[in-house]
Amino acid sequence: MDLMTNPARLLRRTALALLVNATLAALAGPALAQGNFIVMASTTSTEQSGLFAHLLPAFKAATGTDVRVVALGTGQALDTARRGDADIVFVHDQAAEEKFVADGFGLKRLPVMYNDFVLIGPAADPAKTRGKDITAALQKVGTSGAAFVSRGDKSGTHAAELRYWKAAGTDIAATKPAGYKECGCGMGPALNIAASTGAYVLADRGTWLNFKNRADLAILVEGDTRLFNQYGVMVVNPAKHPHVKQALAQGFADWVVSPAGQASIAGYKIGGEQLFFPNAGK
Questions:
Q1: Which PANTHER family does the record associate with it (predicted)?
Q2: pLDDT in tens, 64-77
């Protein structure tokens, strides 16, 4: 009598196979968990600008460590790390980063690089925003009722945008201008919406330079010192989450602020234009 004609024997054999597989998975789990890779929660701008496609192969070549990126808004990236779902964070909201460390979720914050934010809009500039003053520009967007796309995703860019609106006299949490729309999306999708609807949008310069679907959009406001955009890196604190790969994560943090890592950042250009400027230790 074979297994197919003996249901009891078939069930026993199936149960044994499942038990063996579960045991092997349990044994392999710790080994896989300690594999030579780290999970990095980072911003959409570092990915969508193309920086990571340039930077991470250089890091792997130097160290042998893979980096698996979870690209989110800065707020979401920090939340991911707070839950212990990342080994390291690489984001751009200094106040939020410092709170993350002060609350015990991250080890030392290291400045890595900077670029700047720019106000993008239709080249015809119906709200007459063109210039260097971001608050004056947003006042004109608000009073004109022009369409404005906000990421609305708790990202570093979104946090900066809210600060600029507040400086312009508008508390977005209380009153939104007539043309203000939140997409709850990353930088690339926000730019796509702006391109398709002729709206204004605040963007980091790196993602803008790598953005292909520009339609008639152009940079309208740049050069305001308030548009400075600093990035930092932090290893997740293993005291909060013991499974964090502290040594491998610290290896990335140390490399990205080293001369080799800083040179790799400076070497990333599009059309001859540098997207990020290393400033570790400054």
A1: EXTRACELLULAR TUNGSTATE BINDING PROTEIN
A2: 999 999 999 999 99
Domain holding 249, by residue range, is: 33-114+231-278
The reply to whether 40 and 109 lie within a common domain is yes
Instruction: Residue 63: give its domain's CATH number.
Output: 3.40.190.10
What domain count does the chain have? 3
pTM: 0.82
